[in-house]
Design a protein that fits this description.
Elements lengths: L1 H8 L3 H18 L1 E2 L2 H9 L9 E5 L8 H10 L8 E4 L2 E5 L9 H17 L2 H16 L4 H15 L2
Parallel strand pairs: 2-4
Antiparallel strand pairs: 1-2, 3-4
Helix pairs in contact: 1-6, 2-6, 3-5, 5-7
């Protein structure tokens, strides 16, 4: 099943990689770098280069506005009004109503864990190939990468 899903998604991956690169560049250019405390949390999350991470607070996180990616985004159902944070390697979108670090620290740490996964997997393409397949089989949020971020964030923030 995973192989079939991977084959179905493979035509969309180059488009998704371009979109991630564009969004990451925008966030790094216009967002804010992490504070010292946030960099410490990013390091605990496994990020090797927390100084590269930038955060952009936005009213809502929008899915890609490209015909090919609109179709893929609906298929995966990953980005929508419910999305509180989205990691695009070293660029992270945070929804405005979740911007308070003290209140939403676990969300931030969760997103830092995804940055660490991008680093560990070696490229945007490698991360997307794995993460998007996991969003379909076994399904979001049950995939290993998402579960890793959930568990690690809880351990760091709540000591679990």
């Amino acid at each position: 099943m995973r192989l079939l899903v991977s084959l179905l998604l493979s035509p969309f991956i180059p488009w998704a990689c371009r979109w991630v690169n564009q969004q990451e560049a925008l966030i790094v250019a216009k967002g804010r770098p992490l504070t010292a405390a946030q960099q410490d949390d990013a390091r605990q999350s496994g990020v090797t280069a927390p100084e590269k991470i930038h955060i952009m607070v936005v009213p809502s996180i929008q899915p890609p506005n490209h015909p090919v990616l609109i179709f893929a985004s609906k298929f995966v159902d990953l980005i929508g009004p419910h999305t509180a944070g989205l990691t695009l390697r070293y660029g992270i979108y945070i929804r405005q109503d979740c911007h308070s670090y003290s209140t939403h620290r676990e969300l931030y740490v969760h997103e830092f864990c995804h940055t660490a996964q991008y680093e560990r997997l070696g490229s945007i393409r490698s991360f997307l190939n794995r993460y998007l397949v996991e969003c379909i089989t076994p399904g979001y949020p049950s995939g290993p990468l998402e579960q890793e971020a959930i568990v690690k964030a809880a351990e760091i923030v709540r000591g679990r």
